């Protein structure tokens, strides 16, 4: 609802001559600088997306909703053949295209063609193959080494040409080529490890497997990689003759990637839309940060861009206007306890205390993320332990009335550390309806992009309310979206490997909330909130005159 209220504003901004600058949340000079960086980065970002996403099976969306690229097939489809609809019907059958008709049903245009043959790509492939061949034949004589180098260059360049010829539109490289090329890339690393260290086959195999597992991100792959590497190293060493370090590294990576592709078949990241309109993706909150720092003043900057009425720390506001907007087949707002409803509709009446419970396996990674990303970004900077949480949490809601009709269009819930003012979360809370069901979409602005969590409501025993992305309807999920500065078009990734659930309930006369998160199916964090009502300011009374 809030997003539809500002869509016309975005469209007008995108059509103006200075749209790419005026949509910035800084001064025009800084905005131009940021726009130059963003425009150079956009194609790199899209290429990374198209290269790294796993193909999505044609029969399901892997938990993500909306438009998707069938990266392992010959077409890009949406769940509805009708284009440019405000609400896209995601339950309808796919529209059918001929194999060569590569069309984005969201934008009605051809997607970026990354399959056009380029000589530079073939040269790079030949260089990688040549280095791999030289590394694998490092122990041989000069003639054998030269033949191996030429053979490796020819093999990988030919494989690249074949892969590109068979590739259409936004399809990623075929799996067989990705395995072959990464195996070639690791061969020189194995040779270098053997040359500079005294590591044996088992150590080199284990290190290679660990590297591959870490690049695979999910914990299961981090465990699988070293196990495969150790097994390969032991197996090659058992043959009697000491194997080449380059061969150990290459064989390890090839076997690991084949096993990984066979075992981990569920997509953790999916490409949903390329250059889509805002109205076509109702589950995405298309509000980005135009600077490298989000911070607690983001909503004020956004109000300056949109030209609406801005209220800082609204006196009696909630993260939703009314729970009645969320009614649906599985949720009756009338079953929610009065105090839980009041928290959602009048959030500023309450104060929060947080107790974070991090799983041990995720702590090292989060420490790096917090130091290198969250704090410099001014966004998603959660307390790591109880000591940090004891600094206290300051919570406020900033609002924007875009069309000045005295109805709040944008609600920004800003949580920061009370002692330092450092931001914890800056979230834009919106609601919308689709197929007679209400949803909550929370957008977390990022530089030139946004991260959106779309949740569906569910009643809880005892009058509580659960908002979750772990549900059957197609819309709930998590989405990373790049926003084209000039046109406001969206390129969106779904992240089905990330799940969350917020459970708000009353117990022993107090409001509590448990906010749980899962990554790759593994629980990694629970935020436990103690919610207490703020004291009502007492009115000053006039002193009685002396007798």
Briefly characterize the structure.
Helix content is 36%, strand content 22%.
Give an account of the 3D structure.
There is one protein chain. This protein has 547 residues and is α+β, with helices and mostly antiparallel strands. The protein has 13 helices and 16 strands. Strands 3, 4, 5, 6, 7, 8, 9, 10, 11, 12, 13, 14, 15 and 16 form a 14-stranded antiparallel sheet that branches. A two-stranded antiparallel sheet has the order 1-2.
As a percent range, the share of strand residues is 15-25%
Note the main sheet: 14 strands, antiparallel
Distance between the termini: 60 Å
Mean pLDDT: 78
Low-confidence stretches: 12-115, 540-547
The overall strand count is 16
**Overall 3D shape:** elongated
Please count the helical segments.
13
Radius of gyration: 27 Å
Structural class: alpha+beta
Order of helices and strands: HHHEEHHHHHHEHEHEHHEEEEEEEEEEE
State the helicity in percent bands.
25-40%
Oligomer: single chain
Task: Identify the notable features of this structure and list them briefly.
alpha+beta; 14-stranded antiparallel β-sheet; 36% helix; 13 helices; elongated; 547 residues; disordered C terminus; two-stranded antiparallel ribbon; 22% strand; 16 strands
Q: What is the topology?
A:
Elements (H helix, E strand, L loop, with lengths): L1 H14 L3 H4 L5 H25 L15 E2 L6 E2 L41 H18 L5 H25 L8 H22 L4 H15 L3 H19 L7 H19 L6 E7 L21 H9 L2 E3 L26 H8 L4 E9 L4 H15 L8 H4 L3 E9 L8 E8 L5 E12 L2 E10 L2 E12 L3 E5 L8 E7 L6 E5 L3 E10 L2 E10 L2 E12 L14
Antiparallel strand pairs: 1-2, 3-13, 4-6, 5-16, 6-7, 7-8, 8-9, 9-10, 10-11, 10-12, 11-14, 12-13, 14-15, 15-16
